[in-house]
Write a structure and sequence with these properties.
323 residues, Metallo-beta-lactamase, Chain A, globular, hydrolase activity, alpha/beta
Length: 323
């Protein structure tokens, strides 16, 4: 089936959020560090399933969220996150990205949510007509608060959804995963449990060729979990175990391509560009595998030359980039 990346704006994050998990970057530093920001993309994915119809994986952000103070007024999110956390050009809204492919929000037949964080469910209310699949543990935790302060799911972002479909992973083992869920009954879209980043974080295996990880991995470099690790608001042990299970999945399917929601690296950019027509060419696949061989050894250890580092902005401003 065709798989279309949808670029839904971008989000400004501290470098330490993405890469400080092994260097003691703390929750307080996350809130206080205003000098080491990077911009990262936000991606959702549209699957053109042959029988289930157009299926959306994640829902990105909405224009309402960019009016930060108004949208989050009265919530701790109003104070914890920066007012310019999100940037969403008009051509990158969910309706605009769907229209580019000939669809309207009401055409979407089902939505799969990798997890309930705000940059993945901001536009979810556009799809109140559709069933919404998510991990059963994520659904059960939807009213919990991260750090005891921040709602796992901000209520206005999900208020219109009535047809929740919690996923239980009772299907066959695959790769390093002891269970799976065949969402549409034909083996083409398998949900896999990748908890840690959130209680019920879920990855989506498409045609045994593409793994959509949500934030179970922020970038391809996070595959090297003992060298590159994001700061964890959830269960770090589960997070590490989930990445190791993904490593085993890659060993079982050597041609597997990992697609995350926020990969700002050249690897992520090249794959997103290569999927512009919904299919990855043999040339782009060969390039991706060559990149991976130059980046990781057979045990998914990272080439030391490719360890991420923060590069300050040339103008001395707070937003640099990660090399």
């Amino acid at each position: 089936m065709k798989i279309h990346p949808l670029r839904i704006g971008r989000t400004k994050v501290p470098f330490g959020q993405f890469y400080g998990g092994l260097s003691g970057f703390s929750v307080s530093e996350f809130a206080e560090d205003k000098g080491h920001f990077i911009w990262v993309p936000i991606h959702a994915y549209l699957l053109e399933h042959p029988t289930a119809g157009p299926v959306l994986v994640d829902a990105g952000i909405s224009p309402e969220q960019t009016a930060h103070v108004d949208y989050y007024r009265g919530s701790i999110v109003e104070h914890v996150m920066d007012v310019d956390e999100y940037d969403l050009p008009s051509g990158q809204t969910v309706p605009a990205q769907l229209a580019r492919l000939g669809y309207r929000p009401e055409d979407i037949r089902a939505v799969i949510i990798t997890h309930l964080h705000e940059d993945h469910v901001g536009a979810l209310n556009l799809f109140a007509h559709a069933p919404v699949y998510l991990g059963a543990a994520e659904y059960a935790a939807r009213e919990e608060k991260v750090f005891g302060l921040i709602p796992l799911a901000y209520p206005p972002s999900i208020a219109k959804i009535t047809d929740w479909r919690p996923i239980s992973f009772t299907g066959p083992a695959i790769g390093g995963f002891t269970g799976s869920a065949d969402l549409f009954g034909d083996g083409s879209v398998l949900a896999l449990p990748t908890p840690g980043h959130s209680p019920g974080s879920t990855s989506v295996l498409v045609d045994h060729r593409f793994l959509l990880t949500g934030d179970a991995m922020y970038t391809i470099r996070h595959l090297a979990v003992d060298q590159v690790r994001s700061i964890q608001a959830g269960d770090e042990g589960q997070y590490v175990e989930s990445v190791r299970r993904i490593q085993w999945l890659r060993r079982e399917f050597p041609e597997l391509v990992v697609l995350t929601a926020h990969d700002h690296t050249g690897y992520g950019e090249r794959l997103i560009a290569g999927l512009a027509g919904g299919e990855l060419s043999d040339v782009d696949l060969a390039w991706a595998k060559s990149y991976e061989r130059a980046t990781f050894d057979e045990l998914a250890n990272l080439n030391p030359a490719r360890l991420p580092r923060f590069v300050p902005a040339g103008d001395g401003g707070p937003v640099g980039h990660a090399a």
